[in-house]
Predict the structure.
Amino acid sequence: MGTEKIRPDQLFGTWRLVSAIAVDKEGKAIRLPYGPEPMGRLVLSESGRMMAVLCDGRVSLPGGEKRAYSSYCGHFRVENDTLVTKVDLALLPERIGGEQRRKLEFRAGKLVLMPPPRPDGECRELFWERSGPE
């Protein structure tokens, strides 16, 4: 979509996480944030509610490795190319009551969400496709 303004109605529905990548502050690819088999659902409703649940989808993990998991929900709005969620429930208590901001882009038929860079400079891109009946 390039520089076109993203409308909320383009986002309504259920999305399935198909891949997630991360790069360090120099732009070099680093470990996959949700492992080689990422799982996730993103639901954006016409009523303005959203929820996101993401995890490493492997049945078993190599010895000592912790399962990556993230979840939150709340009311959302779209500001130009940014999805802004006022969080009311979350795995991480420090997110509750705050806002989560994710840049939005459509790329090769996928919805791409880009959280702000982490304190160490890591940048992530999460790729979603519409989820049909399962």
In short: The mean pLDDT is 94.
